[in-house]
Amino acid sequence: MQIKAPRGTQDVLPKDSYKWHLLEKRIRELCDLYQFREIRTPAFEHTDLFIRGVGETTDIVEKEMYTFLDKGNRSITLKPEGTASAVRSLIEHKLYADPMPLKMYYLSTPVFRYEKPQAGRLREHHQFGVECFGSIVPNLDAEIISIAMTLFQQLGLKNLSLNINSIGCPTCRPVYRQKLKEYFETHKEDLCETCLSRLERNPIRILDCKNESCREVVKNAPRTIDYLCEDCSDHFHSLQEYLTILGYDFVVNPGLVRGLDYYTKTVFEIISTDLGAQSTVCGGGRYDKLVEECGGPDLAGIGFGMGIERLLMILEKQGLLPEEPYKNKVYIASMDEASKKEGFRLLALLRKNGISAEGDLMSRSFKAQMKYADKINFTHTVIIGEEEVKTKKFTLKNMELGTQESLTEEELINTLK
Q1: Do residues 46 and 123 both lie within one domain?
Q2: Which strand (E) or helix (H) includes residue 103?
Q3: DSSP state at residue 182
Q4: How many helices, marked H, and strands, marked E, lie in the chain?
Q5: pLDDT value for 233
Q6: How far apart are CA 411 and CA 415, in angstroms?
Q7: DSSP states of 224-290 as a string?
């Protein structure tokens, strides 16, 4: 039987894990800079949470969720995105009683979507996202966008475009929705089956369809920004002013609606020209009614999500990932059974003193041990033979310089530290 990972998943091998560590370290430092704290939510939730939060007419709910009945006959779904879980946690633990704004982030959280696997899109991938609750001011929108833009700037990413739009609120959206419905009614013959079913339920979702025929129709559809109420219009213009203060170039993209029903007012995407069809490297927006719709208080929210695998892919493509910085530190090579036992004792002592070390675990000859230490790129080798066991003075070889010195146990530890 051939053993392979399920389609749309991938392993992170030991030789590549350092890339994740470097990126995660940078992200944690950035979130600390903006005073966001980490939240960790389960990999699966009750299905109703995503139907209610993400939206029945979205591609995620209609086509992409991994949903199953558990042994208690409860409908369970593997997490397809991070925001709904953050909102559920906020409501369950009454975090809305905390001082506002409430800032949280999640990192390398697994996300599951059943879709066609391709470059930058996996059925299981991992996301970094931020969520901020309790504030409706437009400068918060700019600050959330700034977190993503700052990360990309720190990483040295090139060829990025910040796209923004406003999709209105419950006050102005019904007017826009009706205009949209009237427009699509005159183009029904060009719409796909899915979009025809959305025409009555949620015509705004048609704007996000990937079908070529539908995309052609969408090009001339009414624009959200032409039907904004005064509050949404003022908010959107203020956002643009704050982004200008931060020095960010941006594109107002009236066709941008994002793929989730919970968004209100601001939506944004940061797009890379180096990723082909899967060009979005970060996306997010405001969701001022989501907490209330999920059974919590009337509490505004805004956030974004970005795929770690996709971000690593673009870093690789632009040559921005360094060689592995980690080097194996100390290898203890022993010549006989007595020195092997002395080496085992010394190995424990080095580790107790915070020194990364390894000894022979393969019963290799001394010559083979030295070859191994050289091949695996250890910086130092401690050589133990009959003389070293007797005198308690150990030979320390610098593998990079080829130099050797004889040291007591205390001197050895101090030198390696």
Answers
A1: yes
A2: strand 102-112
A3: H
A4: 15, 16
A5: 97
A6: 6
A7: GGGS--HHHHHHHHHHHHHHHHTT---EE-TT---S-TT-EEEEEEEEETTSTT--EEEEEEE-TTH
Helix (H/G/I), strand (E/B), else coil: 211? coil
Q: Which residues contact 14 (CB under 8 A, 6 or more apart)?
A: none
Residue with tokens 């700052």: 150
Asked if residue 302 lies in contact with residue 284, where contact means CB atoms within 8 angstroms, the answer is yes
User: What span, in angstroms and rounded, lies between the C-alpha atoms of 384 and 366?
Assistant: 10
Same domain? 243 vs 340: no
**Which of 285, 317, 349 marks a domain boundary?**
317
pLDDT profile of the chain (417 residues), mean per 10 = 88 94 97 98 96 76 89 96 96 97 97 83 94 98 98 95 95 91 89 86 83 88 93 98 98 85 92 75 95 95 96 93 82 96 96 95 96 93 95 94 95 94
- Count how many domains the chain has: 2
Q: What is residue 262's predicted lDDT score, i.e. its pLDDT?
A: 85
353 and 300, same structural domain? no
Which 3 state secondary structure label does DSSP give 291?
helix
pTM: 0.90
> CATH number of the domain that 121 lies in?
3.30.930.10
Q: How far apart are CA 219 and CA 173, in angstroms?
A: 19
Residue 202 covered by a domain: no
For residues 301 and 334, membership in a common domain is answered with no
- SS3 state at 39: coil
Structural domain including 144 reads: 17-172+228-317
Q: What pLDDT score was predicted for residue 227?
A: 94
- C-beta neighbour count of 158 within 10 angstroms: 11
The pLDDT, as a whole number, for residue 6 is 92
Q: What is the structure's pLDDT at 278?
A: 56
CA distances (Å), origin 339, targets 181, 355, 366, 379: 82, 20, 11, 21
Of 270, 285, 317, the last residue of a domain is 317
